[in-house]
Each structure stands twice: as C-alpha cells, then as structure tokens.
Amino acid sequence: MVPYWFPFAVMPTTLTVKNIPDEVYAHLQLSAALHRRSLSGEAIFCLEQVLLPSRLPASDSLARARALRHSIATSHLSSKDLDHFKCNGRA
Questions:
Q1: Could you say which of 2, 8, 29, 32 would form a disulfide bridge with 42 (CB–CB 3.0 to 4.6 Å)?
Q2: What is the domain range of residue 83?
Q3: pLDDT single digits (tens) 6-38
Q4: Is pTM, for the whole model, over 0.70?
Q5: How far apart are CA 46 and CA 33, in angstroms?
Q6: Tell me: the pLDDT tens digits for 46-58?
Q7: In whole angstroms, how far apart are CA 80 and each of 58, 70, 77, 89?
C-alpha cells in the first residue's frame, strides 16, 4: 500500500541552533517561563516577531484602540441615538 500524501500539506521544518551565547539562552529561558511556552515555542515566537513584521505589535494595537475610543467618545451620537440604531438594526 502506498501512502497518500496531500500535495498542499506543509510539514514543519526542524532547525538546530548551535553555539547560543549563555546570556541569550538565559534570556530565552526566562522569557519562555514568563510566557508559559517551551524553549522552542519561545524561539519561534521571537523569530516571527523579527522576521514577519506584518503582525502589529501590541503597542500599535493599543494605540489604534485608544484612537478609535477617543473618536467615538467625541462623536455627536447620544445614547438615545445608539439605542435607536440598535433597535432598528434588530427589527
């Protein structure tokens, strides 16, 4: 019997990193413990943060949320208007 392999399936790749400086390793261990991740999981997370910058940092997300909250707070909609829109949207 020949196993059927999906052509679109992606197999994870293994990477071995040698000669990690002691200080870097200690920081990785600490960070992994703080985030409740394995060493491998923390290393992957760190690599993604550096190599895949398309993800927004938490500080940028918070800044966007604060700006949105500020723009909503200064809108001219009253709570009556909001209730009216909610009720009409549910009808």
A1: 32
A2: 57-91
A3: 566 677 788 899 999 999 999 999 999 999 999
A4: no
A5: 14
A6: 998 888 867 677 8
A7: 34, 19, 8, 14
